[in-house]
Specification:
It is a single chain. It is built from seven helices and 13 strands. Strands 1, 2, 3, 4, 5, 7, 10, 12 and 13 form a nine-stranded antiparallel beta sheet that branches. Strands 6-11-8-9 form a four-stranded antiparallel beta sheet, with no helix packed on it. The longest helix is centred in the first third of the chain and has 17 residues. The protein starts with a helix and ends with a strand. About 20% of the residues lie in helices and about 20% in strands.
C-alpha cells in the first residue's frame, strides 16, 4: 500500500508553509499528496456558512446532479430529487474567504513548489464547492480531469479541501497512484473518456485504487492527470468539498477552447 509521508511522520506541530522534500517527491511519483490539518478553523467555518447559505437558496451558478446523468442521479430536473445540487460553481465569486485563502503562504508556496514561481488559477475549471448529497448523489467513474480541459500541457494541479469528514461511506475520492505520468491509451477508455472497468488489461491498474479519506481542514493536492473516481454518498449527511485548479504561467489555455473562455487569476 502506498503511504502518504504525512502519515509516517505527522510531527507535533502544524504543517509548515512548504512541502518537505519527501512530500514533494511523493507527489512527483504518485500524483497526489494529502496535507493534514492545513486550513485554519476560521476559514473552514466561513466556507461552511457560504456553502449552507447558497445551497439553501440555490444562489449563483449551480450544476445539478440531473445535468450529468451519472449512475444514481435523478433522471431529469423535473423528477424526484431533480434539483439536487452537485456543485456550486464559481466559488471564488461567492465570498472573499476563498481568494484570501488561496493567497496564504501555506497554500501558495506549496503550489509554487509543484508548478513553478508563477501560479495561475483558471476560473473555467473546478473553482467550485462540491456538494455530494444523500439520496440523489451519483457515482463518478475513473477519469483524468484533462479529458475535458485544453491547455498546452496536461500539467495542472488541483486542490481539494475537506469541509467535513470524507470517507468511503460518504463518497470520498479514490485515486490511482502514478497515473499522472502519461495520458491513458484511448483503447482503454470509453466514449466519455472514463477508464473502462470491464477490460482485463485495466484490472491491475484498478487494483491499486487508494481511498483519500479526509478530516475537516485536510487538503488533497492532486495532478489533473491522476485518475480518480468516487461513489455516491451513502450516509445521511451532505459532504462538502472546495476544489480549485492551478497551472504554471507557461501552460497556457488553447485559444478558442472552453479553457480559454474565462478570465484567470495570477496568484504569484
Amino acid at each position: 500500500m502506498i503511504t502518504n509521508p504525512a502519515e509516517v511522520n505527522p510531527g507535533p506541530d502544524a504543517p509548515s508553509d512548504h512541502f518537505s522534500e519527501a512530500e514533494r517527491l511523493f507527489f512527483s511519483e504518485n500524483g497526489y499528496f494529502i496535507q493534514r490539518g492545513l486550513i485554519p478553523a476560521e476559514s473552514l467555518d466561513q466556507m461552511r456558512r457560504v456553502t449552507e447559505r447558497d445551497l439553501a437558496g440555490h444562489f449563483g451558478d449551480n450544476e445539478y446532479e440531473a445535468d450529468l446523468h451519472y449512475p444514481g442521479a435523478p433522471a431529469s430536473l423535473e423528477s424526484e430529487g431533480g434539483k439536487t445540487i452537485r456543485r456550486l460553481r464559481q466559488a471564488i465569486c461567492r465570498d472573499p474567504v476563498f481568494l484570501k485563502l488561496l493567497t496564504q503562504p501555506f497554500l501558495l508556496n506549496r503550489l509554487c513548489q509543484l508548478l513553478g514561481p508563477h501560479v495561475v488559477m483558471p476560473l473555467a475549471h473546478h473553482n467550485c464547492i462540491m456538494t455530494k448529497q444523500p439520496h440523489f448523489s451519483s457515482d463518478t467513474g475513473w477519469h483524468q480531469d484533462t479529458r475535458y480541459w485544453s491547455f498546452s500541457s496536461g500539467d495542472l494541479v488541483n486542490i481539494w479541501i475537506a469541509l467535513g469528514p470524507e470517507n468511503l461511506h460518504n463518497g470520498c475520492l479514490r485515486v490511482l497512484p502514478g497515473t499522472h505520468h502519461a495520458a491513458a491509451p484511448p483503447e482503454r477508455l470509453d466514449e466519455a473518456l472514463f477508464l473502462r472497468t470491464d477490460l482485463p488489461e485495466n484490472q491491475a491498474l484498478l487494483a491499486q485504487a487508494t481511498p483519500v479519506e479526509l478530516q475537516p481542514g485536510d487538503v488533497l493536492f492532486f495532478h489533473a492527470r491522476c485518475f480518480h473516481a468516487a461513489t455516491r454518498n451513502f450516509s445521511s449527511q451532505t459532504k462538502h468539498s472546495v476544489v480549485f485548479t492551478f497551472r504554471s504561467l507557461e501552460n497556457t489555455p488553447i485559444p478558442g477552447s472552453r479553457s480559454a473562455a474565462w478570465p484567470e487569476l495570477l496568484l504569484s
